[in-house]
Structure formats: structure tokens, C-alpha cells
Amino acid sequence: MSKALEGIKVLDFTHVQSGPTCTQLLAWFGADVIKVERPGVGDATRGQLQDIPDVDSLYFTMLNHNKRSITLDSKNPKGKEVLWRLIKECDVLVENFAPGALARMGLTWEKIHEANPRMILASVKGFGPGRYEDCKVYENVAQCAGGAASTTGFRDGIPMVTGAQIGDSGTGLHLALGIVTALFHRTHSGLGQRVDCAMQDSVLNLCRVKLRDQQRLAHGPLREYSQFGEGIPFGDATPRAGNDSGGGQPGRILKCKGWEHDPNAYIYFITQGPVWEPICDIIGEPGWKTDPNYATPKARLPHLNEIFTRIEAWTMKHDKFEAMDILNKYDIPCGPILSMKEIAEDEALHRTGTIVEVDHPTRGKYLTVGNPIKLSASPADVTRSPLLGEHTDEILRDVLGYSEAEIAEIEHSGAVGAVQKIAAE
Ligand code: CAO
């Protein structure tokens, strides 16, 4: 089977998380992703959060599958020469350096477009144009500036960040969509273009419903928020809503059997309107089916705390998986709170390739998250991340067409550092 992006070459000038998640997706779809790294140093994440001394960290390996690595000093004259050759050869350049860093390397859009009019230049920055455009940004900064933190957590607690990396991986996803869209546009325009994603914008895009609620506040209280039932007045900004889920389908995280000693013995329970009657029967409140205070979604809104306390009295009698089995028989939407340990051991996720075991020459076997986007005609095989500069030689020779003498000259110039001639696996 051919890969969807077969034939597309990506000059991957990314580091840390946001950019690498994007290029990893492109690699899974079949693009040839050539990761350019600083000689002797590489992507900083190779050495961050290391669990095994002198072995590429899981932080790096889990974000850089299916790529090739070339080491190149972009500030060395010979290195610059190689870089321009790569720019002429590749279809896409992806970068997430600090604002201005690419231009300081001499790589402006104008020059890139002149050298290769078909090239797409894709960039992640923390902020778009405006007062923070020059700022360096990491995940949690984006979560805070994009509206996620002010709307996450409990009303009476401080703003919270979430474990889902919506700033980094979320922006990488947005960027990947921008790149494939620009590739499609190129099929009829014949030209590349710039694709810019700001992490603040991506987080805000994912917080769209909270900006919806901000505007609804002008017309009255947010009745689906627990705060409404508790009689606490709303302020002038969307408040934190704890674990409420909104609309006519209120939901909460409820304790299950074993919660006293298991931090994840909980279930998410949604009181979807159409299954209200079976919910009443299951929890032993058949009278609520017809009682005007409970019978309709609107009537229930002021009583959500009471209703969920009653449902929790039932969920606490069952472990989360038993509760799932019982509730699913009636199509009651609910979900177990799964720990990372439970997810890592989930057979179904292994079967679908969402969790994959990968072998690495210095690390050995480890688990990773495979491609969550499944294409029927272009399945993704997950291969290990490259060692630093592992493919320098072969990229210079096979992709860029340098002769052995030229390669020796490049190596001698210091532009690629000490080239590793690795016998992989
Ligand atoms: N050869 C020579 N120099 C290289 C090089 C190479 N192959 N690769 C990178 N460099 C240089 C850059 O040119 C830059 O030098 P100058 O500052 O002199 O121009 C330098 O390395 C540092 O780059 P940086 O500023 O991007 O890196 P940093 O570690 O200081 O900052 C980060 C990291 C992530 C805060 C910053 O890159 C950033 O804000 N990126 C945009 C937002 C983003 O993607 N954030 C997500 C990070 S994941 O949580």
C-alpha cells in the first residue's frame, strides 16, 4: 500500500514538542522527514527527563518516530550551503524556533520563496502579531494565554492547566492540517506559501465553547453550570466549571467502589435527556421520572448537585468497570477514569496501533502512542526515532547528491560535527 504523503520531503527544523508532533504526523502519513539538528547537541529533549543515562529520553523518542536525523550547524558557512541545498530539495520546511531565530540564520520567507517557489514554510510561534509576538513560549504559557487555564479547575480554586498538551501537540496538529492544505493548494497554484500557527490561537480554538459561554453571560446565568444550582452569582467572565459538562446533558465525575484508596476509581456520568428514565430506575428513584422537579432537563438544572449526589450513592456501590457494563446496557453515556497504567495495558489500544511497542538500539523496548488518525489505504507503521545525526551521511549522498569528496569536505569543515557511521539495529 502506498503512503498518503509519499514523495513529500520535509525539512524538519523543529525541536521540543509542538513542531515535532507535527512532523511526526507527516512522517506517519509517509513523508520523508529529515530532522536537522545542531551537531553534538541535537534537539534539547534528547537529554531532558532522561530515565536511562546517555540514552535518548522518552520525551524525544516518543515525538520523533519515523524521521531521519542529519546534524548541521546552520551558522557554519558550509552548513548554510547544505541547508540551502536542502531547501531547494524539500517541499516543506517546518520550524518552531523562537521569534526571529530563523531570520537570524538568514532564512527569510523572501529568500526561501525565491530559492524554491514551491516550498511551504510552516512555523509555530507562541503568539501571533501583537504585544507578545517576540515572547518565547512553552505549553503552559499557551494554555494560560489561550483561555484554557482560566476556564479549567474549580470555581473556588486557582486556574489550572490540563495534562493534555493542547498548546504544544494541539498546535502541532493545527500546523499539520495547514501544511497538507497548503500542499493541496500547491497542486493547482504551483506555489508554496507560509503556514503560521500561534500556540495561543490553537488553544483558543480548542476553548471555543468557553468564548461561546462568555457571550451567553450577557443574556443571563449559565444554567448548566453547577454554580447556577448553588445560587452563586456569575461574574463578568466565563467561570471555571469543575467537571461539569454542559447543555441539556449535564455530567460529573463520580466516585466508584474503591475510591478511598484508588485515585482513579471514578466514572464520568452524563445524565443525557433521552435516558433519564433508565437512570431513575437504576439509581432507585423511579418517582423522578414523573416528578415535575426532575422530569425535564430544564427542571433538573437547579437540582444537579442533589441528583449527582444520589447517582454517586449508586456508583459507589460498583467499581468503574461494573458501572460501565450496567450503564451501557441502557446507552447511558459514561466513561471510566482510566489511569495511564490501565491505558498502557489496554489490549484494544494495542490492537488498533494506538499504543505501539517500539524497539530502540540503545533504549530497548518502550511503549509509544501511534498515529491516532487511521487512514484505510495508508496505514502508519511506527518506526523508532533516529539517533543524533544517524542519517547525515546518507542524506548528504542520497538526498542531496553530494559526491564522496564533497562529503569529506563538508565533514572537514565542521558543519556536520562528528558523523556517526551507525550500524542500526
Ligand atoms: N545550528 C546552529 N544553530 C542552531 C541550530 C543549528 N542546527 N538549531 C538551532 N540553532 C540556534 C538558533 O538559531 C537559536 O540561535 P539565536 O538565538 O542565536 O538565533 C538558538 O539555537 C536557540 O533557538 P531557540 O531560541 O528557538 O531555542 P530556546 O531553547 O532558547 O527556546 C523555545 C525554546 C521553545 C522557548 C523557543 O524555540 C520558542 O519560543 N519557540 C516557538 C514556540 C514553541 O514552539 N514553543 C513550544 C515549545 S514545546 O513546549
Automatic annotation (TrEMBL):
The UniProt keywords, alphabetically, are: Transferase
Binding of substrate, residues:
247-249
GO MF terms held by the record: formyl-CoA transferase activity
Q: In which pathway does it act?
A: Metabolic intermediate degradation; oxalate degradation; CO(2) and formate from oxalate: step 1/2
Binding sites annotated in the UniProt record for CoA: 17-18, 38, 96-98, 104, 136-139
Q: Which reaction does it catalyse?
A: formyl-CoA + oxalate = oxalyl-CoA + formate
The cross-references to Gene3D superfamilies, in alphabetical order and at most eight, read: Crotonobetainyl-coa:carnitine coa-transferase, domain 1, formyl-coa transferase, domain 3
Q: Which residues form the active site?
A: 168 (nucleophile)
GO BP terms: namely:
oxalate catabolic process
Q: What class of enzyme is it?
A: transferase
EC numbers listed for it are 2.8.3.16
Oligomer and partners: Homodimer.
Instruction: State its role.
Output: Involved in the catabolism of oxalate and in the adapatation to low pH via the induction of the oxalate-dependent acid tolerance response (ATR). Catalyzes the transfer of the CoA moiety from formyl-CoA to oxalate.
Q: Which family does it belong to?
A: Belongs to the CoA-transferase III family. Frc subfamily.
State the protein's name. Answer: Formyl-CoA:oxalate CoA-transferase
